[in-house]
Amino acid sequence: MALRRVPVIPGRTAAGRARPGTAARRIPAGLLAPAGVTAALALLPVGYLAVRSAEAGADAVARTLLRSRTLELAARSLGLAAVVTVLCVAVGVTLAWLVVRSDLPGRRFFGVLAALPLAVPSYVAAYTWVAATGVEGFGGSVLVLTLCSYPYVYLPVAAALRRMDPAMEEVALSLGRGRRGVVLRQLRPSAAAGGLLVAMYVLAEFGAVAIMRFDVFTTQIYTSYRSGFSRTPAAVLGLLLVAITLVIVVAESRTRGRAGYATRGAPARRPPAVRLGVAARAGALAWSAALAGLAVGFPLAGIGYWLADGSSAGADAARLAEAVAATLGVAAAGAVLTTALAVPVGIIAARYRGRTATLLEQSTYVGHSLPGIVMALSLVFFAVRYLPAVYQRWPLLVIAYAVLFMPAAVGAVRASVLQSPPVLEEVARSLGRGPLRAVGEVTLPLALPGVLAGAALVFLTAMKELPATLLLRPTGMDTLATRLWTETGSGAYGAAAPYAALLMLLAAVPGFVLGRRSLEEVP
Amino acid sequence: MKLTVTDVRKSFGATEVLRGASLTVREGDLAAVLGPSGCGKTTLLRIVAGFESPDGGSVRIGDREVAGLPPDKRGVGIVPQEAALFPHLSVARNVGFGLPRGSSGRTARIEECLELVGLAGYGDRMPHQLSGGQQQRVAVARALAPRPGVVLLDEPFNALDRSLRVSVRDEVRAALKRAGATAVLVTHDQEEALSMADAVAVMREGRIVQEGTPASIYAAPCDLGVATFVGEAVVLPAVLSASHGRDTVSCELGDLLPRRDGVPGAGNRTGGAGNGTVGAADGRPGTPGADVTATAGAGTVALRPEQFVLRAPGEGVEGLVERVEFFGHDAAVTVMLESGTVIRARTRGDLPHRPGDRVGVAVEGPVLFFTG
């Protein structure tokens, strides 16, 4: 998927304890003002989309909504999301169980491989499948999106399995019941949370479905924006997509609360591995190997083939260098702006309670539920009308990155500020520092490594961003992602290969970190 | 500078944490606020420091009312529970944090403060290179450096090993005294409060219930609760009677002499809304006979372990030695009396008691009697 945003748990400050540091104090103006700017910026796209739809009038909105084309798109989008989600849950749960609980040969190895598809941008995977096999449409979209998204189910389910108390299973067995019922019941919250995350990402997906030529909301929004006769349909479709996504976000945050409860605390011991029969072992091995091969091996082999094929030799080195430079430039600017905007909100989220603090923090999470294409569209509308000076200039693209990746940055700032004890700020206050200087001289230096890690994550994610970049990039500027998109669109698979290879390389960095972490957890 | 806290009240939601707490600390004194956990002592400290705002009452440092000021404008030094040194700054920069940057004499003041806590030459170390006790001393130096009006210490020795605690206590007390600082130590450890402070304020349920010197608080607690909180005591039912112009407390250990100043009022001004003064001069054990208000009737007697004398069987009340804890310099002997009452007596370490011995138990000196 093009929108590989890191899932962020909308933060709640630990309630109850009155001291120290989290008292319901007044937020100093020096924090409140910049945080307000951040929140306003984060809310702007959705807000403006609503304004545009309202301006068009109820009639026009109703006409767009009730067109048979709209219903058809809704059916396609939701159908794709439903099928991919079901498949991801099936794949994720079976693989997690095999890796964590069975005596599958090489389960450490498969444990690492299972997280790796996160490192494959979905449009890159789509490109390799289209280029090699010519699959298209619904089937192709389901295939690619399932292979790219099942880790969202696999990771939480594997974590839940590791923390499950083996005593529960033993009790079930001793009572004459099978272990399956107990295990599945315990896994339900984490599998549901992962599944909803998958559904959300599939609805927001643009690149892969566009390459597969399967028409859904996002691609239709893009087309109707491109055709450019009337912008109302695009705005209305965007708003509808946001509404559907929000329903899923709310459902997902509910299950997440319960999943957290179900997996609290570590068990005293590890459950013994379940022994598989000979046939089951062979089947399990084939299944795990096939998944790893299709999800990771196939894209790598595909890119390797096209690189070796020689038809990519014609790729223009100067153009490639230009795209690399442009990608690095806008992504770096995006990371800097995102982090700068996130710092005041993250500090407030970590250190203050009350309605204002909650409101500020949650407004920045809007980007989490906003499909990139919709956000970009709204910014285009807004810029054309009010800020023609930045329309199709890089600042607008950088702002788009900031809105999209704000949740990850705010989460990183909040988490790292929480790790610096509030008592240090109090000592600084008692030694004559005002509230802002106490934060600046003590808390921020201590939180810096975490904040920088968040910035790096935003940087890497922004480099792979496709739909917003496609809409908002300055005329003539190409990033790695948009070049890959263009070349694939014209069937120049060989010419696209170097871009795909570079994107895979970039994407592998956080994937590598994730994989290493899961390696440490596998027994 | 003198610290005056008057009638401070504070509630968190429906919970009333401070119900009119008043406290006065004289300039240059080290006062201890002693109370069980949850009594509101930390909240009181945080209000003095400015981290919480009181719902009512006043806080004065010297002649200045500070209740409405932010923490950075109060001139209050704090030493938190676990030192809380800035981990990203060297020891010298920690100590210098409160000194104006670029001021002349800054380096000299840092050196001076490190010397004060016995850590001269440690300026270039990082906090993680110091032991827990050293960190705590740096925290004291950091609090003292800007010459604050008052230094607040919030259970500063809690995190330290038992063995280390006594020596760090001595060093911190010495440093505060050398600096001439007015300081308030909050603690739930009565031994710490009694041994370190010039004055002790006992806090209970959001109020200061008694203030005085450590000796007067121990010898003349205002009620049974304070008596048992500041030291070990055997509590027995007793009756007070007056005959031949002399008071007598009768309990199962015989007829005893009540401590004349061992009743509320003597040498201590007490009470919930009281604005008593904690000070070495004021808290001397009261003069005998001073406002004795206890009237004849039933009550309780509190006996300190060091008041028991173990004699040969037949002298005093008969008992059976159950247990002997030998500490070297002294010993604690647990004795079960014939009535079934168990007492714990402090005796010299060289007395040859064994579990199973029969002994006679007597009580020496005047005892604490409380009506009701």
From TrEMBL, chain A:
<keyword id="KW-1003">Cell membrane</keyword>
<feature type="transmembrane region" description="Helical">
    <location>
        <begin position="328"/>
        <end position="350"/>
    </location>
</feature>
<keyword id="KW-0813">Transport</keyword>
<keyword id="KW-0472">Membrane</keyword>
<feature type="transmembrane region" description="Helical">
    <location>
        <begin position="438"/>
        <end position="463"/>
    </location>
</feature>
<keyword id="KW-0812">Transmembrane</keyword>
<feature type="transmembrane region" description="Helical">
    <location>
        <begin position="370"/>
        <end position="388"/>
    </location>
</feature>
<feature type="transmembrane region" description="Helical">
    <location>
        <begin position="492"/>
        <end position="514"/>
    </location>
</feature>
<feature type="transmembrane region" description="Helical">
    <location>
        <begin position="78"/>
        <end position="100"/>
    </location>
</feature>
<feature type="domain" description="ABC transmembrane type-1">
    <location>
        <begin position="74"/>
        <end position="252"/>
    </location>
</feature>
<comment type="similarity">
    <text>Belongs to the binding-protein-dependent transport system permease family.</text>
</comment>
<dbReference type="InterPro" id="IPR000515">
    <property type="entry name" value="MetI-like"/>
</dbReference>
<dbReference type="Pfam" id="PF00528">
    <property type="entry name" value="BPD_transp_1"/>
</dbReference>
<feature type="transmembrane region" description="Helical">
    <location>
        <begin position="138"/>
        <end position="161"/>
    </location>
</feature>
<feature type="transmembrane region" description="Helical">
    <location>
        <begin position="29"/>
        <end position="51"/>
    </location>
</feature>
<keyword id="KW-0997">Cell inner membrane</keyword>
<dbReference type="GO" id="GO:0005886">
    <property type="term" value="C:plasma membrane"/>
</dbReference>
<feature type="transmembrane region" description="Helical">
    <location>
        <begin position="190"/>
        <end position="212"/>
    </location>
</feature>
<dbReference type="InterPro" id="IPR035906">
    <property type="entry name" value="MetI-like_sf"/>
</dbReference>
<feature type="domain" description="ABC transmembrane type-1">
    <location>
        <begin position="324"/>
        <end position="514"/>
    </location>
</feature>
<dbReference type="GO" id="GO:0055085">
    <property type="term" value="P:transmembrane transport"/>
</dbReference>
<feature type="transmembrane region" description="Helical">
    <location>
        <begin position="112"/>
        <end position="132"/>
    </location>
</feature>
UniProtKB/TrEMBL annotation, chain B:
<feature type="domain" description="ABC transporter">
    <location>
        <begin position="3"/>
        <end position="230"/>
    </location>
</feature>
<dbReference type="Pfam" id="PF00005">
    <property type="entry name" value="ABC_tran"/>
</dbReference>
<dbReference type="InterPro" id="IPR050093">
    <property type="entry name" value="ABC_SmlMolc_Importer"/>
</dbReference>
<dbReference type="InterPro" id="IPR003593">
    <property type="entry name" value="AAA+_ATPase"/>
</dbReference>
<dbReference type="InterPro" id="IPR013611">
    <property type="entry name" value="Transp-assoc_OB_typ2"/>
</dbReference>
<protein>
    <recommendedName>
        <fullName>ABC-type quaternary amine transporter</fullName>
        <ecNumber>7.6.2.9</ecNumber>
    </recommendedName>
</protein>
<dbReference type="InterPro" id="IPR017871">
    <property type="entry name" value="ABC_transporter-like_CS"/>
</dbReference>
<keyword id="KW-0067">ATP-binding</keyword>
<dbReference type="GO" id="GO:0016887">
    <property type="term" value="F:ATP hydrolysis activity"/>
</dbReference>
<dbReference type="GO" id="GO:0015418">
    <property type="term" value="F:ABC-type quaternary ammonium compound transporting activity"/>
</dbReference>
<dbReference type="InterPro" id="IPR008995">
    <property type="entry name" value="Mo/tungstate-bd_C_term_dom"/>
</dbReference>
<dbReference type="InterPro" id="IPR027417">
    <property type="entry name" value="P-loop_NTPase"/>
</dbReference>
<dbReference type="GO" id="GO:0043190">
    <property type="term" value="C:ATP-binding cassette (ABC) transporter complex"/>
</dbReference>
<dbReference type="GO" id="GO:0005524">
    <property type="term" value="F:ATP binding"/>
</dbReference>
<dbReference type="InterPro" id="IPR003439">
    <property type="entry name" value="ABC_transporter-like_ATP-bd"/>
</dbReference>
<dbReference type="Pfam" id="PF08402">
    <property type="entry name" value="TOBE_2"/>
</dbReference>
<feature type="compositionally biased region" description="Gly residues">
    <location>
        <begin position="264"/>
        <end position="277"/>
    </location>
</feature>
<feature type="region of interest" description="Disordered">
    <location>
        <begin position="262"/>
        <end position="285"/>
    </location>
</feature>
<keyword id="KW-0547">Nucleotide-binding</keyword>
<keyword id="KW-0813">Transport</keyword>
